[in-house]
């Protein structure tokens, strides 16, 4: 550059030469390292490709060939042929039949087990046609044990049944005596689930749920239902949609404390439109009324005055049925 000292020019040239030399050496090193690394990779691949794959030794083959084969699930003729072609070819084959679900004529058990030493005698159990067992008077434990012995997976459904002890078998599907499939449904009696009638929504409602007096006592989870004062009218009161979920209902009726002394009402209950019971209750007293409602779709309460013209009657009580059905009925509110 114009006006710059010659020594400064020489220093600049020396510095540039050093930098260029360093860059060149670095490039040579990278190239050499890359070439050497590729050589190592190529050598490794070549060595791996030239190495033979491991093969089982003759002693391992001999050991496998001397063991008992697995013939379960094969038909008897095929199982005998497999045994004859194996190390068990010299053994005597004994068979027995046993009722079993699914196909008949196939091996369901073998002795000795697969992979064990070959004996002098091989025992095969062959499946025979089986029927769905009878369940009358039997417990869940008994029927499940029998079905397991027959090779059946039991699908258990539980429901409440009046008069049946929990665990008693109520039915089986397919019906007893039918050809036995690999899966059956067993219905077993269960303990009852209980809910307040006040927790079940009424579709045609003239009742209010809450805490009310009944014969002088305060009752929670109660219903205060209007009394039908139109004499001679067609029975019509609050209706509950049971949807076949309720097996039993038990109710208690009483007049509220603020009713006129000497008042009384007649209460009738209807199941699917048919009379299921009635009672009369006087002021200061209570009366119980219940019904079996298994399979019923609707339930109705109809109250009429018999003295004193009371406006309401207090109702308490519960419904009982299978657990899942009662839960669904009370959660649909």
From TrEMBL:
InterPro entries: PASTA_dom. Residues 46-65 are annotated as: Disordered. The chain crosses the membrane at residues 12-36. Keywords: Membrane, Transmembrane, Transmembrane helix. PROSITE patterns: PASTA. Gene3D superfamilies: 3.30.10.20. Residues 126-190 form the PASTA domain. Pfam families: PASTA. This is PASTA domain-containing protein. It comes from Nocardia cyriacigeorgica.
